[in-house]
Amino acid sequence: MMPSPFHGERLKALRTEAGWSQAELAEKLGSDARYENSKVAPGLEAVIRMAEAFNVSVDYLPFDNAERRPLNAPSRHVDARLVDLDQLSDEERTTIANVIDALVTKAKLRLITGGAG
């Protein structure tokens, strides 16, 4: 019996990173989690469900040279703005990074404290 080309170790790493048991993963995928041993290859629908569950590109699970990328990438609008940052000075980019850091910290504190606004 030839081993599956599917990378079960990547699935296991993603599952562990998410803090899920094999049973929890199976429940989320609607199938069993025996794919981790790479002896059973999942079908395309199962790979898609895995990619959605872990927000990784579909190619990340079966291909050796696939880079880990999010399945749901930022919008093109955001990408275009990020490219424009190259036109700014180092000081201006630092200011933008500081503003982003402050807003993210504020959002995290809001979540922690259950506050609004």
Automatic annotation (TrEMBL):
Q: Mind telling me which Pfam families this protein's record contains?
A: HTH_3 (PF01381)
Stretches assigned to the HTH cro/C1-type domain: 11-61
* An MF annotation (GO) of this entry: DNA binding
UniProt superkingdom: Bacteria
Question: What is the official name of this protein in its record?
Answer: Transcriptional regulator with XRE-family HTH domain
Upper lineage is: Bacteria, Bacillati, Actinomycetota, Actinomycetes, Propionibacteriales
